Amino acid sequence: MTVGESYSVAFQVALRAVVQETGAGRIVALRGLGELVSGCPGLRPRAVAALADGLRAPVGADGWDADARREAGRVLAALLRPAAEAPAGPADPTADPEPPPAADLDLWGATLVDLDLSRAVLGAARFADARFLGTTSFADVRFTGDADFARTVWSGPARFTRARFLGHAAFGRARFRADADFTGARFAAFAWFGRGEDELWEDDPAWETIEETSPAPWDEPNEDDPHWPVAVLMGDYQEWSEGGDGARFVGPVSFRQARFAGPAWFFKARFGAAATFRRARFGGPVHLDQPSVDLTGATWAGTADDGPVCWPLGWTPAPAGPDGAQVVPDDAVRPYSGQLADADPDVRRAGLAVLADLGDARPELRQRVVDAVCGYLRTPLPFDLAGPRTDGQAAELELRRTAQRMLAARLRPSTPAPGGPPHWPGTDLMLCGATLVDLDLGGCHVGHADFTGAQFHGDTGFAGSVFTGATFRLGGGDGQATFHGPVSFAGARLDRRRSVREVLGAVVGHSGMVVDETASPPG
Prior knowledge:
Blueprint: H1 3-20, H2 23-38, H3 44-56, H4 66-80, E1 103-106, E2 111-113, E3 121-126, E4 131-133, E5 136-137, E6 142-143, E7 147-148, E8 153-154, E9 158-159, E10 164-165, E11 169-170, E12 175-176, E13 180-181, E14 186-187, E15 191-192, E16 198-200, E17 232-234, E18 248-249, E19 253-254, E20 259-260, E21 264-265, E22 270-271, E23 275-276, E24 281-282, E25 286-287, E26 293-294, E27 299-300, E28 309-310, E29 315-321, E30 324-329, H5 345-361, H6 366-377, H7 391-411, E31 429-430, E32 435-437, E33 445-450, E34 455-457, E35 460-461, E36 466-471, E37 482-483, E38 487-488, H8 500-504, E39 508-509, E40 513-514
Parallel strand pairs: 1-3, 2-4, 3-6, 3-7, 4-8, 5-9, 6-10, 7-11, 8-12, 9-13, 10-14, 11-15, 12-18, 13-19, 14-20, 15-21, 16-17, 18-22, 19-23, 20-24, 21-25, 23-26, 24-27, 25-28, 31-33, 32-34, 33-36, 34-37, 35-38, 37-39, 38-40
Antiparallel strand pairs: 27-30, 29-30
Helix pairs in contact: 1-2, 2-4, 3-4, 5-6, 5-7, 6-7
Protein name: Pentapeptide repeat-containing protein
């Protein structure tokens, strides 16, 4: 028997032990497999695939408990790290050295416990629909192929410090329930943190696997649509209608000193706490309009010809220099200076008042002001509205009501009282996925409004409101809005061509819904 044959037989024995053993025996078997493969690198692809199979098993199936998953992750990490790593030291920020051989990794739908793949080198990496429990680290990982993290759920801290994405990086509809750190990460292609839909054409073979998609249930506080995590849409040469949410960050997130060579797409991402992009470098199209973003020291080397660019209200690129344009506070919207990003609720309240005054005085700013306030209302609430509230939580809800009232007062076309706010006609509302409390848009005249997946708590009023168009759900049964308290649509017009019932479809109402279509458009 040759040495290679001997290793192959030993590998089969080790693999059989991993499959058959449970409890402490499986831990021993996993370690034995790792030691065997470390002495025969040619077995690495088969070992990686076998470990991935185990980690993709449902929780509790065949003895794959938390301890086994943690140990399998350790063995997997050892196999994916280069055998001879470069000496520690400062890396050349402009160089992209030839990567060592990379292994593809398929952990789609896996449940991973305290996974630490730091310093690993990966080819195509598929983590879509995976659940990450405990602390997870991808620090200093090099992804040489596309990295797919769509619809992932991160229960603990997530570390991507200095990670390098040489292919596309997809984080659509990822849910980060703790802090996330992308400090120093480098994105060579598309950095996708925006809307989370997958667009498939009719001849795409991926349609054959759509039914296998298994997103984690959408069990976020106050957001109960189980179909919200995934929607698959078909493109059309004339039109592609989409809706939905992007990545959801509940805790603080850092993209400090990150580099985006391609598009940096955060359209409809939601930040529930501080989001810093300090000294980040953007090289292409950017969509980053959330009011909680800090862009101090960031630069943009792109041009308007590269594609759409959208910065948060209060930030703008200065004239370009040798390293691109510095992103600086926008003098055009002073005295607003990012107050909606402040941790102090009193500062945020003052910021709402400043924004209202800006919009009242300058009609050209009104849509941008509304977009900023809608972004604030889309901030995830980290506490359950059904439970008892602290004084701080009660104050947070009252501030949310203040923002809603500020918008509603300017969307009603009735003759204002002396000294009251003017009407802001033709204004669109982007409230997809928002948690809204005691929202009263009764009598308001609005342009287009997106309430896809929005959660309405308390008493909600749309009586007598008029919309050019309103959306409360994605196609089919996905992304439906939910009303957790009583709501009235008496006399409302939600669309120029469709009835109220057609627009609402199968949205969920838990406490009574009044629909009076006498004022709805004919046909």
